[in-house]
């Protein structure tokens, strides 16, 4: 049985991981405080990383969080589609409760992203994962409105408008993030690109999702979500049998190298007005608009994908047509 614990609620990469890294500092502060006979200690659990200031942006994460942010299997990466190696083990994943219209529970401004947490029913398996993974939240990355793209991964150098990350933890870790980040495949993240489409207010699921943004303008704000939209609704239009796979890391400090990445080839199409709402509604802790919330590209990793590229399909269709034509003559 998968227990949704407080641990899991705090398990987002920028909440829990920072808690882990800062707890040692808190101990030191506490010891000093006790030594100085100060009665109470306030432990600040946010370390100083950011996206938007030179003193803490991603170019210095390897300095402020060196253990992993300066590591050797860091994310995100640029995916070179023609270099992706065929792997016949990359079968379709099974998506459990992605259809549920009541699994999305809460939406939060974390100070560095917008995060939606799930109930404990959402799960994935298959697709060459070693065991099922329990999915507990998604997070979003964006640039500055639809005109400045802000996906984390790029494909053949192309950056999409936004990227959605569904974060899942290996079931056997039972929601224990500290165990998961010590495991090279402790987490599975599903990455979905978001691309602009021309209509307004579309799709309806994203209209509903973005309607919450005005309620979480400030760092730390969160609200309960009404039942209504499912993950399937949000992932509309994506053929989920086609994806890239590689081993990488969390894309925020402490950048732990514990992630099996699944990046889907198709993008979700969302209208420009809705994409623009992210960069014009929610704010960082300093009350400036939350923009360009993505990490820069890291050194390449080996990427695999389903065998039978569209090129091969085209070629075999061509051969089939040719043999039909020859058979007829
Ligand atoms: C990040 O900060 C560095 C200095 O630490 C600066 O050179 C760089 O331009 C900044 N990047 C962004 C995207 O602001
Ligand atoms: C973001 O876009 C807005 C609107 O186009 C613009 O006013 C603002 O200067 C941009 N911010 C940055 C940091 O590029």
Supply the CATH superfamily name of the largest domain: Alpha carbonic anhydrase
- The secondary-structure class comes to alpha+beta
Note the overall shape: globular
Order of helices and strands: HHHHEEEEEEEEEEHEHEHEEHEH
State the name of the first-level CATH class of the largest domain: Alpha Beta
Brief descriptors of the model:
three-stranded mixed sheet, about 325 residues, 9 helices, Carbonic Anhydrase II, binds 2-acetamido-2-deoxy-beta-D-glucopyranose, alpha+beta, twelve-stranded mixed sheet, about 25% strand, 15 strands
Description:
By secondary structure, this protein is of the alpha+beta class. The chain has 2 domains: 40 residues; 247 residues, Alpha carbonic anhydrase (Carbonic Anhydrase II, Roll). The strands form 2 sheets. Strands 2, 3, 4, 5, 6, 7, 10, 11, 12, 13, 14 and 15 form a 12-stranded mixed β-sheet that branches. A 3-stranded mixed β-sheet has the order 1-8-9, with no helix packed on it. A hairpin with a 2-residue loop joins strand 8 and strand 9. The longest helix is centred in the first third of the chain and has 20 residues. The N terminus is likely disordered. Bound molecules: 2-acetamido-2-deoxy-beta-D-glucopyranose (NAG) (2 copies). This is Carbonic anhydrase.
């Amino acid at each position: 049985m998968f227990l949704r614990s407080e641990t899991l609620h705090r398990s987002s990469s920028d909440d829990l991981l920072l808690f882990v890294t800062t707890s040692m500092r808190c101990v030191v502060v506490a010891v000093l405080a006790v030594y100085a006979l100060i009665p109470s200690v306030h432990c600040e659990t946010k370390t100083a990383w950011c996206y938007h200031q030179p003193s803490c942006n991603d170019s210095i994460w390897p300095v402020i969080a060196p253990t992993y942010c300066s590591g050797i299997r860091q994310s995100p990466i640029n995916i070179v589609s023609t270099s992706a190696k065929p792997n016949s083990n990359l079968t379709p994943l099974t998506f459990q409760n992605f259809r549920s219209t009541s699994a999305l529970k809460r939406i939060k401004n974390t100070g560095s992203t917008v995060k939606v947490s799930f109930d404990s029913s959402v799960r994935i398996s298959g697709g060459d994962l070693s065991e099922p993974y329990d999915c507990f939240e998604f997070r979003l990355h964006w640039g500055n409105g639809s005109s400045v793209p802000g996906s984390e991964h790029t494909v053949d150098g192309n950056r999409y408008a936004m990227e959605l990350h569904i974060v899942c933890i290996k079931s056997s870790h039972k929601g224990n993030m500290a165990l998961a980040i010590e495991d090279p495949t402790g987490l599975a993240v599903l990455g979905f690109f978001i691309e602009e489409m021309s209509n307004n207010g579309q799709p309806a699921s994203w209209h509903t999702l973005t309607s919450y943004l005005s309620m979480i303008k400030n760092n730390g704000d969160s609200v309960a979500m009404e039942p209504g939209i499912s993950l399937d609704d949000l992932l509309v239009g994506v053929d989920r049998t086609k994806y890239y796979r590689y081993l990488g890391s969390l894309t925020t400090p402490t950048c732990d190298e514990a992630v099996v990445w699944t990046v889907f080839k198709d993008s979700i199409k969302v209208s420009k007005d809705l994409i623009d709402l992210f960069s014009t509604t929610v704010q960082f802790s300093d009350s400036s608009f939350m923009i360009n919330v993505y990490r820069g590209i890291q050194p390449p990793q080996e990427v695999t994908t389903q065998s039978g590229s569209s090129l091969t399909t085209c070629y075999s269709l061509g051969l089939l047509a040719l043999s039909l034509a020859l058979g007829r003559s």
